[in-house]
Amino acid sequence: MAFSRLHCTNVYILCGRIIKICNFAPAFKNQLNNKDMKAFVFPGQGAQFVGMGKDLYENSALAKELFEKANDILGYRITDIMFNGTDEDLRQTKVTQPAVFLHSVISALCMGDDFKPEMTAGHSLGEFSALVAAGALSFEDGLKLVYARAMAMQKACEATPSTMAAIIALPDEKVEEICASVNAEGEVCVPANYNCPGQIVISGSVPGIEKACELMKAAGAKRALPLKVGGAFHSPLMDPAKVELEAAINATEIHTPKCPVYQNVDALPHTDPAEIKKNLVAQLTASVRWTQSVKNMVADGATDFTECGPGAVLQGLIKESDLDALVEPIDRMGWKLGEYGNINSKVAKEILLLRL
To answer: Which one of 107, 124, 321, 345 is the catalytic residue?
Structure first.
């Protein structure tokens, strides 16, 4: 898969930055309160890169304190892997998930008074970051849950060979229909991530995904791309991990967040701690409804999106939801670095596929 040098530069120059996406289209404003609302969004596994968070650690006393606290909680120096490890080290689920979580949450906390969310959401793993940022989870509890989630998922992946694939340019209904037909033949195949209009990631058994990819192409999909992942995330094959994580979630105190958190399982805003717990448990085997979450946030008044965390994936996915978006990168410490205008969302989507 090839990218032009210009496009790759435009995307990767933003890695390690907070990406601010401002939608000024009046048609999307909440017709009830006509209020411009600020949403903060958090990426999931696949956004990681070597060196992530190093600028924060070296330039912010708060960031350094939180990173060192994380090293103590985890029992090993995850910062050494994040800052100076290899891509292979960082791709391990048990490392990737806490690393992305730390970078995302610490990025938000280092914004200080500029961090004033009126709603939050996170893609898959990013939902835990969103909950910490909204005050529903403490930093310490969030990290412990993310690490427990990562370890449980890695064990589930090792127990049953499984995989995922990205389906491009096929209607959601057709993807769902083909997945159902593969399931009827005794294999596992489900829509795992509704990333944006025209892109769904499917998840399941290796034979099931291989069969589904053939059927998707025959049905007119532009691409059916197998992904280099460790297992079938957000599918029934993660049920052993779900059972293990449920006990940890139920034993963790979740507070009423200071703003609504749009959760993956139903794409709706939640503030009730009991509902948040239930949805977190269900998330491991349920679809990530990111497309629907973005549409619902816009319908509820969101006109200004800020992505906190490594990479620049979510900005491309949000732009694909037909927002008239202006992309403006700002430094972790709050000063403006310049304006890159409408970044190529197609490239951002393809980077998501490459890095899942």
So the answer is: 124
